[in-house]
Design a protein that fits this description.
Blueprint: E1 4-5, E2 11-12, E3 19-23, H1 29-46, E4 49-51, H2 63-73, E5 76-80, H3 83-89, H4 99-114, H5 116-122, E6 123-127, E7 148-149, H6 159-166, E8 192-193, E9 202-203, E10 207-214, E11 217-225, E12 232-237, E13 244-251, E14 261-268, E15 271-272, E16 276-279, E17 284-289, E18 295-301, E19 314-321
Parallel strand pairs: 3-4, 3-5, 5-6, 6-7
Antiparallel strand pairs: 1-2, 8-19, 9-12, 10-11, 11-19, 12-18, 13-17, 13-19, 14-15, 14-16, 14-18
Helix pairs in contact: 2-4, 4-5
Length: 322
């Protein structure tokens, strides 16, 4: 089965975890312990194949070869920012200070010089709360490229880091809608029926979509209530895709009880507009701006409605979004 190409260009099966090498400096025993706990979390909880020097010191080995192997074959290299790592990585430390981190940083610099674009996606600077962006080596361009603050060792705490490793953004780009033209366009904007053109997020049981006659005008795509609902509603997700809602709110011309009063209200992202009252022969035109609104809710009811009498006979006539 074909695999996916990861940052190194190495093909991996879809179910094979990415290889991650952790490079850091032994600034202090506390910092070293913090790095180990971070690696423990990535390996044991997240399921990445992590390589850390503290786990491989159970035998005599050539640490330069060990580092080269992982630096060159790992899918990702996590650089733990710290003052000592930065100083050594930038050549500002004595030759015999932190030879391991100096060697690893030199290899990273060499690979960046050879393939800047590829290594940019592969080298992932991580900043713990005890450090800052200024502790990232300058050759990693800490202020103009992405860095990954990790404040807590939880799935949420490493969410941004995992997005870089998996290649899946935290928020997926939606499908592009139909372009309606710029401000100078002479084309008419698109219109969508709220009754029949959008999937409702939620609604009351007694609501129907059908034609409605209000004040001797027929509205073909209306939201009609003829059931015992104390407060009927329709709720839809707009996704900030519309500018305006228009409708006619009214009592149906064929209402059995002609003296009823209907109460109508629009809510934009939970914020209610003033309630509108209508009566037979006295509908109300609704014209509401919805620019930037994520969720729209239409409410209507007849006060005093019960199961046995005073049933509402109300409608939102041709509610349209544009």
């Amino acid at each position: 089965m074909p695999g996916n190409l990861h940052a190194t260009g190495v093909s991996m099966a879809d179910n094979e975890p990415p290889q991650v090498f952790v490079t850091y400096a032994h600034d202090s025993p506390e910092h070293k312990e913090r790095v180990r706990r971070f690696a423990d979390f990535l390996h044991g909880r997240i399921g990445l194949e992590v390589h850390l020097d503290q786990w491989d010191d159970g035998e005599r080995r050539d640490w330069s070869l060990w580092a080269l192997k992982h630096l060159d074959t790992a899918n990702f290299v996590v650089v733990i920012a710290s003052p000592d790592y930065k100083r050594r990585a930038e050549g500002n430390a004595a030759f015999d200070e932190g030879r391991g981190s100096q060697f690893e940083a030199a290899r990273i610099r060499d690979r960046l010089t050879r393939d800047l674009g590829g290594e940019l996606k592969r080298i992932l600077p991580v900043v713990f709360p005890q450090q800052s962006v200024d502790d990232i080596p300058n050759f990693l361009n800490p202020h103009s490229t992405t860095r990954y603050p990790v404040d807590v060792f939880t799935e949420e705490g490493v969410e941004d880091l995992l997005a870089a490793i998996t290649g899946r953004a935290r928020h997926q780009r939606p499908e592009r809608g139909q372009w309606r033209g710029g401000a100078t366009s002479t084309a008419s904007p698109g219109k969508t029926s709220l009754a029949t053109g959008l999937e409702w997020r939620a609604c009351s049981d007694g609501i129907r979509t059908e034609g409605a006659r209000i004040n001797d005008v027929h509205y073909a795509d209306s939201i009609v209530l003829r059931a015992a609902e104390r407060l009927a509603f329709v709720e839809v997700d707009l996704g900030m895709a519309y500018r305006r809602l228009t409708s006619v709110a009214g009592v149906l011309d064929d209402a059995v009880e002609p003296f009823q009063v209907g109460h109508f209200r629009v809510l934009l992202d939970g914020r209610p507009s003033p309630e509108v009252k209508v009566a037979l022969g006295r509908p109300a035109k609704i014209d509401v701006g919805v620019t930037g609104v994520l969720r729209l809710r239409l409410e209507f009811h007849r006060p005093g409605t019960t199961e046995s009498k005073w049933l509402p006979e109300l409608a939102w006539g041709d509610p349209v979004l544009e």
